[in-house]
Amino acid sequence: MTATTQSTDLTADLRATALAALERLGATVPVAADGEEGLPVVSPLSGRSLLTLRRDGAPEVSSAVGQAAEAFRTWRSVPAPVRGQLIKRLGELLTEHKADLAELVTIEAGKIRSEALGEVQEMIDICDFAVGLSRQVGGRTMPSERPGHRLMETWHPLGVVGVISAFNFPVAVWSWNTAVALVCGDTVVWKPSEKTLLSAIGAAALLDRALAEAGFPAGVARLVLGEREAGEALVADPRVALVSATGSERMGAQVAPVVAGRMGRLLLELGGNNAAVVAPSADLDLATRGIVFSAAGTAGQRCTSMRRLIVHESVVDDLVARLVRAYGNLQVGDPRAEGILVGPLVDGGARERMLAALEEAVADGGEVLVGGSPVDVPGADDAAYVRPTIVRMPEQTDVVRRETFAPILYVMTYSSLDEAVALHNDVPQGLSSSIFTLDAREAETFMSEAGSDCGIVNVNIGTSGAEIGGAFGGEKSTGGGRESGSDAWKQYMRRATNTINYSTELPLAQGVSFG
Ligand code: SIN
């Protein structure tokens, strides 16, 4: 069999598997008509197009926003615990269809099975969280300075939330936003990455089913399948009260001024350039496992993937030797196969950017210690498989300070914790960080105001693999937004301050007298 025939077989197999999963999910697939210029669905497993879908542009986005705005008028007055019951049903459907949705995530995002299942589990977890939240969102009361008065806060839904998600978490990030936004009383229009359309169709079909069963309007949650034009229309639409966008720093820099210009609200989750500090006291066995998962797992394509390692000079040789050994054992290939830990990069462009970054790192004096080369996977000639790599750098040069969305881990050394923290924080991004140490002083310092400047600061675990209970997001060019757990729900609601006078007098604040 020739390589081309093998690729054709693989593509046919992926298409059949994806369509069967979508059928089990009860999804309608909007296939483009013959001759229509649609959106190709390309699987990174083969690098080839599986089918072509209908493309939504600005008019379709406008119509979806209109439906969501209309639905908001009734949805906002449905009691929050009743809205929570919808999310409870979504969680049940996700549990029932966990394997189906995970299959689509593997086919479109290239995640190994365990990570794809983990992504859907994260959706189930946020549904649980949001159901609890539906009985908890509420405000404070504060003492009034005036006798016979009460001061309190009430929280109200914002309106339509526009969710723009990235390919690397094709469904979980939508659920972080949607489960919370819906219990808060908002309606949602979702524009997923054009690289992961089938996963989005599958996930949206489950929510559509839950809405229909409960008799709620479909406009409560809408999906638009488009490219840049669709994204731009969503961001610019004044009826969209909050834009929650996940993606590159470049994308965020384009979205932010448009939303700010119309005084909309923004929730940005952009790039990360996440680092771990490895201190002299670290448990190197545990650190090795944590680093390999965060740096090489998901083929380095999480926002929280570890990209920099700042190691004390006394342990660097030992740690690097362990890491090089572990990287040597990583199996790269079809993420559906047993034993594979590293699937493909999302496309050839990602591989080109990885190879260009490595060339720049070497020109800056970096030494490639392991990996860094493309990998041929039989039958997948158009796919972009690479071997995860470790590069020892003499200093933190420009290429290290940029986020390259690929499995490159740059290793640098330090001699004092102050130096490690300075190196750690000297990048534009501020998403996730960690320190491996058994010294409580070092751990506390790293978590303190004088330590890491990131939104996520871990101790003795890697930088990736967040739980939904905490607020997720980061600082600086990462965008400052927080999604998912803790009190991130406040971003999806507006606050009203109420002063209630239950006396017969009308005292003015600050003792002002007026006639
Ligand atoms: C991401 O959003 O890229 C990562 C989240 C995580 O690692 O949990």
UniProtKB/TrEMBL annotation:
Its EC number is 1.2.1.3. SUPFAM superfamilies: ALDH-like. It holds the Pfam family Aldedh. It is an enzyme of class 1 (oxidoreductase). Homotetramer. Belongs to the aldehyde dehydrogenase family. This is aldehyde dehydrogenase (NAD(+)). It comes from Antribacter soli.
